[in-house]
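Per reviewer request, we include the raw input and output of the structure prediction for the construct analysed in the revised manuscript.
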Amino acid sequence: MEATDRVRQAGVFSTVRRSVRMTVGQKRVWQSHWSELGRTQEDLPPGVLDLAGWFGREAPTVLEIGSGMGEATAQLAVAAPDVNHLAAEVYPAGLGQLMLWVEKYDLENVRLLQGDAVDFLRDHVAEDALSGVRIYFPDPWPKKRHHKRRLVTRAFVALIASRLQPGGTLHLATDWADYADRMLEVCEAEPSLRNTYDGWAPRPAWRPVTKFESRAQAEGREVRDLIFTKRTGS
């Protein structure tokens, strides 16, 4: 499946859909599990999605934007079985691979969305519905002329904050220094959020090492984490 980049009023969209073929195993698990675990954004009915109904239980729900090949998502779901984990990704191979991890670990607390998380948050998630949002290693769009395509903007952070419960967290990680600085700037500018730390957060031991982080370390780039919490009464 292919799609071109989309740039909307907010200036971004969550991830770029790549033309990547699924493996035989990914196709098999898609055919057997997608109807149970997944939703395609285009097929969602208008209005707010019943997250508890989709997961089959009431539990804190964390949205991961850009779950990639899903190994980190699966590890986080294994480590926190009392949390509902919703992975948003656009390309089928990544979602298929995540479903293979779900099958391997017999996970019941993972659901998958194929589509753009900006639209999903705006159109289908109620205010104060999420206990957390995670954005790990979003596309850095390193060329200056492409910075306008970066996901983490003031408008998007404000949208995320409106969907977080009081006390909910926004956790960001990137290995691009100028993007990290911009993330810090736009998150600190959002009045309903507060930085949990004085500047950068120490790397949480519970956050799995992704292939992007391993590559960054091999290439000598420093990985920075930011953890912001929604203020109570916001």
